[in-house]
């Protein structure tokens, strides 16, 4: 894959937007901690406020550290511009507050990150913004429902926690005919595996806490799209509505993480393919949802819009809700934790954890079964990951009607 200036992703992840020469040869960019920036004169300060020069003003409006990160992220997402924030929710809320007003409608997919769902369903409603949840895996559902009132269509792909995909290009074909923006949460794929903007989306948002940071040591996010949209979100949604500004220290950690994104991601994907194959043939598993499996219902779409299948898997056990939780509890090396994209393999039970605020009916309506497990496949040795899954299955399910399935672990 080539970026606009014809360098490859791996090169841009390491070099884009930074020249050591301009920083006394420092290989690693300096961290700017300054909260405010001094002007030569009132006139220069006044011009900065009017946008007539590009002098930094105050760190909530941007800093040299943040700007370097944003230029690199824009390059990786093949966007005109990007805006970095203190969290993924900081990016999502700053963007959405900037794009809708009372009386507008947002159409969102049924399956969403829990806090995004909460923001849309409970946060925005009292402000007179209508939010409709539809199954956007079928673009016809959007075509039937969209009107001139619809100002934003929002989806993840693959979706959290159940790995459903939406066809970004097909949704963009529909929103394009309206004064309506298409916004895609690309956290699961990262820009290395999928670029929603090149498929027709107007905005892309990320939790950089996950694969981009990659080491579980920071919270950050970003939104990318056109320069006018980013300017508006920066000077309204971020500056005035959320104030969720990223610190220079987190910029440094994130730039470090991004340098190895492509290397880590290749191994996440390689391990996930093997874990998915193991789960699919296990008699304790009813369904395995992984875009890399031949049996994945949306396999053709995955091949069309994702470069690789990613590191996330969802699976349903042949078990009830309590047994599903017991399986997670029986794991020894794999950690029971939310978040994803870290070196450590992380597993969780959405019905009990990330989506536990949903009623039984809401879980069903949002396609989250009580026996669904979400796993973020880490960078440990594949044999150790599968050995742990295997011992947990045996310890929970042997003696419950299942017998040892005689599985051999790959060498
Ligand atoms: C984690 C996550 C978010 C929220 O990001 P934070 O950095 O935790 O604020 C949004 N969307 C998805 C898909 C996520 O996984």
UniProtKB/TrEMBL annotation:
One protein family per Pfam: Cys_Met_Meta_PP
Keywords assigned: Pyridoxal phosphate
Gene3D superfamilies: Aspartate Aminotransferase, domain 1, Type I PLP-dependent aspartate aminotransferase-like (Major domain)
Record bears the keyword Cytoplasm: no
Organism superkingdom: Bacteria
Cofactor: pyridoxal 5'-phosphate
Family: Belongs to the trans-sulfuration enzymes family.
Name of protein: Trans-sulfuration enzyme family protein
């Amino acid at each position: 894959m080539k970026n606009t200036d014809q360098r490859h992703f791996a090169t841009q992840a390491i070099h884009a937007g930074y020249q050591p020469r301009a920083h006394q040869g420092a290989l690693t960019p300096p961290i700017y901690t300054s909260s405010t920036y001094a002007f030569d004169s009132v006139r220069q300060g006044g011009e900065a406020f009017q946008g007539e020069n590009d002098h930094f003003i105050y760190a909530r409006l941007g800093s040299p550290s943040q700007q370097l990160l944003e230029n690199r992220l824009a390059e990786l997402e093949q966007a005109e511009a990007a805006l970095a924030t203190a969290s993924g929710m900081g990016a999502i809320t700053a963007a959405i507050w900037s794009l809708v007003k009372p009386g507008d409608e947002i159409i969102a997919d049924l399956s969403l990150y829990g806090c995004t769902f909460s923001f849309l369903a409970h946060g925005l409603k009292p402000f007179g913004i209508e939010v409709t949840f539809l199954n956007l895996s079928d673009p016809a559902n959007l075509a039937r429902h969209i009107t001139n009132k619809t100002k934003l269509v929002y989806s993840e792909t693959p979706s959290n926690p159940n790995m459903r995909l939406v066809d970004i290009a097909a949704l963009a074909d529909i929103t394009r005919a309206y004064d309506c923006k298409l916004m895609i949460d690309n956290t699961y794929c990262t820009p290395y595996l999928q670029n929603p903007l090149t498929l027709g989306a107007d905005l892309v948002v990320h939790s950089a806490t996950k694969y981009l940071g990659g080491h579980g040591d920071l919270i950050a996010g970003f939104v990318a799209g056109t320069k006018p949209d980013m300017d508006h979100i920066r000077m309204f949604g971020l500056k005035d509505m959320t104030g969720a500004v990223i610190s220079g220290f987190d910029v440094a950690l994130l730039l470090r993480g991004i340098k190895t994104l492509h290397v880590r991601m290749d191994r996440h994907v390689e391990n996930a393919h093997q874990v998915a194959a193991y789960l699919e043939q296990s008699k304790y598993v009813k369904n395995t949802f992984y875009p890399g499996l031949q049996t994945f219902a949306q396999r053709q779409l995955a091949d069309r819009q994702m470069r690789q299948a990613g590191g996330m898997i969802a699976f349903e056990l042949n078990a009830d809700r309590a047994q599903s939780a017991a399986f997670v509890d029986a794991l020894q090396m794999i950690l029971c934790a939310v978040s994803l994209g870290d070196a450590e393999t992380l597993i969780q039970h959405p019905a009990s954890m990330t989506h536990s605020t949903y009623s039984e009916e809401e879980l069903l309506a949002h396609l989250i079964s009580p026996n669904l497990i979400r796993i973020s496949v880490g960078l440990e040795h594949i044999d150790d990951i599968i050995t742990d899954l295997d011992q947990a299955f045996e310890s929970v399910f042997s003696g419950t009607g299942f017998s040892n399935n005689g599985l051999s672990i790959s060498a």
